[in-house]
Amino acid sequence: MLQLSDELVALRDLIQGWAIEYDLDFYPVIFEMVDYKQMSEIAAYGGFPNRYPHWRFGMEYEQLSKSYTYGLSKIYEMVINNDPGYAYLLLNNQLVDQKLVMAHVYAHCDFFKNNIYFEHTNRNAVNEFANHASRIRRLIERIGLESVESFIDTCLSLDNLIDIHHPAIRRRPQGGSDRGVERQPEARRLQSKTYMDRYINPSEFLTRQQERAAKVQATEQRRDPAAPERDLLLFLLERAPLTPWQQQVLEIVREEAYYFAPQAQTKIMNEGWASYWHSKIMTERACEPDEVVDFADHHAATMAVQPGQLNPYKLGLELLRDIEERWDQGRFGKAFEECDDAGLRATWDKALGLGRDKIFEVRRLYCDVTFIDEFLTPEFCSRHLLYAFDYDRRREQYVISSREFEAIKQKLLFGLTNFGQPVIEAIDANHANRGELLLMHRHLGVDLDLPEAQDTLENLCKIWSRPVHIETIVEEKRMRLSFDGKEHGQQELGDES
Predict the structure, then answer these.
(1) 304, 251, 252: which is closest to 275 by C-alpha?
(2) Is 497's pLDDT higher than 50?
(3) pLDDT digits (tens, 9 = 90+) for 368-396
(4) d(CA 285, CA 19)
(5) SS3 367
(6) Given 136, 197, 285, 390, which residue has the most CB atoms within 10 angstroms?
(7) Residue 418 DSSP one-character state
(8) Residues 266, 315: contact at Cβ < 8 Å?
């Protein structure tokens, strides 16, 4: 890696100052200059200079390197959520590109520091990931490359089976599992004034409620886990018969999965926020007259939308601009929402000037799902020609299925919720009293991909060391998919199972 030239150092200081003037708030940022091979290596490692050894990183490097060599794609920058932040500039980029990237990076770092979905992330991730790499290398030396790498493969195939809301929602009693905790059943009392309590909650009513609560508690105590567990990696760490070295590997994979989860939860917002500020800094401060055309060309390439594809940069940027304009003009709230005069709505302008404050609030409090759910409007969809599309099996191609606002919004939200992946929960660690693992798929209108479900069951079985089952819906029928370590099975279930 190379140090920045004096010219780039001066530009970095200028852009940092302009970012601060715009009220961006970020950790210190360290820029490094790299060539395209080094950039491909870093990108293959997820932006980190040091990761544990695994074949998938080599595969990613080959793909990125060849893509750059053949002119199919180019990585302009990489930035790490860390304190201090680390960012990489590509050697031989034009000066206008380096300015754009620096502005983009400072906005990303502002988002990392201030968005609530990143609050739980490790701000010393560079050193922590290097520590993970050292631990894995020591295990390889002691256990052997093939065994460790094979188990890493298994863990990585399951790294999406986490609870992305785990940092914000306590789903189990503080202190971990609630197994073995004795609780006295409590009768449910109806709310009443003190002087009316003996009439509202007579003794025979309380006795029946006490008996009912005791039955419910007895059922819960027999169930293991007492409530469905969505964080399957944590569940496996606590319950699966793993050796100490396997626990180390699974713990590392889980920790890194939680580090990267907020980036997937906020991809549209994060890239939109960075694009918003690089546009503003470049057009208002940093761009020289002879650089305007090059900047416009490169910015337009980033914002380009291919038919049938979602560009997070474009959608995030335009929606933030729309929010700023609406709050500047007062096009929100009860009076505006209840106005049914199309002409009046189109010219509505209360000159409130609240737009800048609002987008900073949005940057702080929202993720992609809540961002789209709260701020996507019919007017926005119409103005930007958004539509929903589906696969037409008869024609064997994707076709536009709707231009209706609700259909577009639901399609977007469906693809963003849980990263568009199925929600799987552990519901029984001792199924059929044989130590088998039973999972439940929360069916939200889309069936599981059966080959992928079977692969997942195989990998779960490797860790659980006993048969694994998952209950789901396949073609509107309740089914239980199973893997016993040798072969797959399917069982149709009735209304009760």
Answers:
(1) 304
(2) no
(3) 999 999 999 999 999 998 888 887 878 88
(4) 10
(5) coil
(6) 136
(7) G
(8) no
